[in-house]
Amino acid sequence: MPGKPFKEENRRKYQSVFSSFAKNTCYIAKHGLQPALFHYAFPMDTRIDIIAHSPAALAIRALEKSGYQAWIVGGWVRDTLMGRMPHDADIATNAPWEHTKRIMCGAGYAVHETGVKHGTVTAIVSGEPIEITTYRIEGPYSDSRHPDYVEFVDSIELDLARRDFTMNAIAFHPTRGIFDPFDGASDIEARTIRAVGDARKRFEEDPLRILRAARFEAQTGFEIEPATRDAAFSCAHLLDSVARERTGSELTKLLCGPYAGRVIENEFPIVVQAINELKVARGFKLKSKRHAYDLLGHLAHSVSAAPENEALRWAALLHDIAKPESNHDHAQRSSTTATRIMQRLRIGRQQTQQAADAIAWHTTSFPPSEEALRLFVACLGGDVPRARRALLLQRADASGHGPKGDAREKEVDEELAMLDALECSGKPLGAKQLALSGREVADLGNLHGSEIGRTLDALLAAVVEGEVENTPEALRSHLNFAIENAEEQIFQKKLRKFLTKR
């Protein structure tokens, strides 16, 4: 077979990685790890049993019985070599897809034609979907997304040569082991992201690969190899041709990576091409003396400090996006801008709404106090998860200030602990938790429409401030006073008044 096999010295290097998986025979049997690499962990009869129970190995065996080649390829191999838990195993074969379908059906497996234009069918083997694709090379990408045509070939090396990065261009066989013609395993050990062949050509074929390089860096902490980075930067303008939902999906994965903050700064020419509104962030000096970084550094450090949650990572990236326009009311302005950006990138509606909402409230801070916290939660309709998101963004924002944000971080930690306790306490945090329902309030006070909601809020405010107990009798007695003093945004006003007193 052409190309070079997995180097013997690399086999020794990665033996410990594979052996760590060997401790869980059920996991190995399920995912079909290469038994030769478990030579020191399992006796031969166990290795044979592993092959027999692996869905991917069963599919490979069926293809090979009919005279075809087959290898596991892609992310499964990469993740296993990295010591990460691999997921769905994809198979590459020299069998035409029609033959693959006939062979798999003949072996008793259901088969779906999921991408036959590109040679792909999905077989359900032992309950697991396995994508099986014919070896191929690809023509030009006129739409910067799909090749204009594919040509099916008979060489696994040619198939691997069309892939984006060397760490994704490694094949694995249950008995023959690793086939690594582009030395991807060495790049994995060196923690390097390197394009296969001509980096510029790879990026011109599919510009989304530019963002994928940054995304892999954010997820793994690997460094992009200099020539690959130079090509990515020079081709970054090609991202404009990529479908917005593809760009948005990659950005979300990037932002949720553990090294996302580093990538936002290091690979800024790529990120800013995808989100043009960030252009003014680099070098923009923040007025507050509490800030240790420029706006870009602040946003990047805030992202790093935020939980790895899609809505919160987006919120951390965009929470001060409108500051260069105006520091006044920048929370609301940034919320509006974030909504526009996320909608443009086709980010999910829920994530967009949650991110925009957290941004809108990220400047509403207060010293740890149960009364202030209950007023704050009431401002948010008694929605505890919503309040928690807002506080988590405030914490990330404080962390993004640098050392001078430490005090506020500690305050938010206290408030989050307090919020957890309040949630379990049974104390009313929203109007729905009052001992009088909206219908009862409407009937007793002869109220209609928005009058009902304002009155319920006035009753809740009285309960939160300790003026009235949350019992039906006490609330009925206080009802007329609540009707007379009901007003819009009562909790925001009371929270501001509370903070003024402090």
From TrEMBL:
The biological processes this protein is annotated with in GO are: tRNA processing
UniProt-recorded Gene Ontology molecular function terms: metal ion binding; nucleotide binding; nucleotidyltransferase activity; tRNA binding
Q: What are the protein's UniProt keywords?
A: Magnesium, Metal-binding, Nucleotide-binding, Nucleotidyltransferase, RNA-binding, Transferase, tRNA processing
Cited SUPFAM superfamilies: Nucleotidyltransferase (SSF81301), Poly A polymerase C-terminal region-like (SSF81891)
One family name in Pfam for this protein: PolyA_pol_RNAbd
Q: Which InterPro entries match?
A: Bact_CCA-adding_enz_type3_sf (IPR050264), HD_domain (IPR006674), NT_sf (IPR043519), PolA_pol_head_dom (IPR002646), PolyA_RNA-bd (IPR032828)
* Name this polypeptide is given: Phosphohydrolase
Biological source species: Slackia isoflavoniconvertens
Question: Taxonomy-wise, where does this protein's organism fall, top ranks first?
Answer: Bacteria, Bacillati, Actinomycetota, Coriobacteriia, Eggerthellales
